[in-house]
Specification:
Shape: elongated
Number of helices: 10
Number of strands: 14
Oligomer: single chain
Largest sheet: 5 strands, mixed
CATH class of the largest domain: Alpha Beta
CATH topology of the largest domain: D-Maltodextrin-Binding Protein, domain 2
Number of domains: 3
Helix content: 40-55%
């Protein structure tokens, strides 16, 4: 039984279709279909029911998928065990934030690939919340305050930030001095997040309101420069704006708790050496 056929079947099962699995694997749809046909012919059972919307597991497919995934994972561990120390091969798929990824994370990923010439590294940059299990990523880099989840997370570095607004906004609307006053201002947000501030040892949480939202920190920084409101943004995004005077810090008597950069991976799996070494490299750069 061919290992590539098994891996392909697991990808199709998890992705819900041949096209999605082909994108994940970086191969053509015809190759995926050929591997599936060969596996089903060897087993003598139908594993997938093809539909106009993708592919659904048959009863046999549901049972076989669990065993196939376990076999692929065990072989990955076995290959890592027998490889020379430090040598990596195979594929590493990483989901990374767009606001931070191309400027800060991409050089680290490139260094990872340079150190391990047999490793195929695929990085996907997006500020949307990526389902790393459903979309087949080995791990994701997340920035901020992690919500409770069943994912396994490792902090690799701190992320500091502050509240900022443009001088024009402050001239027109004034600057808030307390968290309560902030509620009367237009907040620039990614969604319906909670903002936290420190008053001595006490943490104050507020739910700001605003009419401008974007799923990208760079876009929120641009909106703040345009005078649309007050934004909480990480320092790496606003450093140049602060130096030029396009943005100024507000409500500085209340510290913003330090956020973090995390590597998160799916639960129920041993951390692969690829993910462990990437985590160590990120700590080396950001920790």
């Amino acid at each position: 039984m061919d290992l590539d056929d098994l891996r392909t079947f697991v990808e199709v099962a998890d992705a819900g279709g041949v096209s999605s699995a082909a994108r994940r694997l970086g191969v053509s749809k015809s190759i995926v279909s050929r591997r599936l046909f060969r596996l089903e012919a060897e087993l003598g059972v139908q594993l997938l029911a093809r539909t106009t919307r993708g592919a659904a597991l048959t009863e046999a497919g549901v049972t076989f998928r669990e065993h196939a995934a376990r076999v692929c994972a065990e072989i990955d561990v076995a290959l890592e065990t027998i490889l020379p120390a430090g040598e990596l091969r195979g594929r590493l798929r990483i989901a990374a934030p767009l606001s931070l990824g191309p400027t800060h994370l991409a050089p680290v990923f490139a260094e990872m690939a340079r150190r391990h010439p047999l490793l195929h590294l695929q990085a996907s940059y997006s500020d949307r919340f990526v389902d790393i299990v459903g979309e087949g990523f080995d791990c994701a880099i997340r920035v901020g305050y992690l919500n409770d989840s069943n994912l396994i997370a490792r902090r690799v570095g701190p992320v500091t930030g502050k509240l900022v607004a443009s001088p024009d906004y402050i001239r027109e609307h004034g600057a808030p001095a307390t968290p309560d006053e902030l509620l009367a201002h237009q907040a620039l947000m990614q969604g319906t997040e909670t903002w936290q501030f420190m008053d001595g040892d006490k943490t104050i949480s507020i739910h700001p309101q605003g009419r401008f939202k974007a799923d990208n920190g760079t876009a929120l920084a641009a909106a703040a420069v345009a005078g649309l409101g007050i934004a909480w943004l990480p320092d790496h995004l606003i450093r140049d704006y602060l130096e030029s005077g396009a943005l100024v810090a507000v409500m500085t008597s209340y510290l913003v708790p330090t956020a973090g950069m995390f590597v998160v991976r799916p639960p129920g799996q041993h951390s692969t050496r690829k993910v462990r070494l990437l985590t160590e490299l990120l700590i080396e750069h950001f920790g």
